[in-house]
Amino acid sequence: MALTLNKIWLLIPIISAATVWLYFLVYFAPSVDGTLKLNLEFPSNLKELQSLSQVLKEYSKTHSLYVLVLFSSAYVYKQTFSIPGSVFLNLLAGALFGVKMGFPLCCVLTAAGASFCYWLSFSVGKEVVEKHYPDKIQYFQNKVEENSHQLVYYLLFLRMFPITPNMLINLISPLIGIPFNVFLVAVFIGLMPYNFLCIQTGEMLASLTSIDDIFSYETLLKMAAIACVALGPSFLLKNPNK
Predict the structure, then answer these.
(1) Which positions, given as ranges, span the membrane (predicted)?
(2) pTM to 2 decimal places
(3) Boundaries of every domain in the chain
(4) Mean pLDDT, all residues of the chain
(5) Long-range contacts at 128-134 (CB < 8 A, ≥ 24 apart)
């Protein structure tokens, strides 16, 4: 019990340092226009996202590096601490940077944030995750054992067609024996279709009327097809345990 509490206490300075860094970036933002004001809160709806996008676009005109650092820090923060709502930041990336820059940027940031989450869960979060998700851990443990001969393809499938939240996969992966290199490849490649879709849509953020517009039936079918293609090679691999 004491060991568990000690590990949990280690999270406090980590979270505090990351949060202070974001506060620093916002409250010491460079001067642009007296009427402009950055809000530290992450957008939780489309209206807030569109408003934030307009403010950051103004900043980008004279302080593009600052906007890049602020966006990257916020993105990694959300991914590291498993805060829902990555779709909003992907859309924002499309609005601010376009597909050419926003897509590779978000792929790298997604992999970085997920990696930090993986190692946090591995080093200090094991007991907490096991306490809150015992059934999920057991379920994925069984799945990993069943697909040990095709683990990369199985993880790619999960990432490309996220039936299970990516946040949960990030937290559970180090606890069920998924090697970090396999985890990293699956995150970086597997989330490319999702990132691209959101960033491409984000280029038209001003005209977007609903987040649901992103995930039409046609889009979901395309993502499912891509996921099945990723899983395809696994059928050629024989399970040595059978």
Answers:
(1) 9-29, 101-121, 176-194, 214-237
(2) 0.87
(3) 2-236
(4) 85
(5) 128/4, 128/8, 129/171, 129/172, 129/175, 130/175, 133/168, 133/171, 133/172
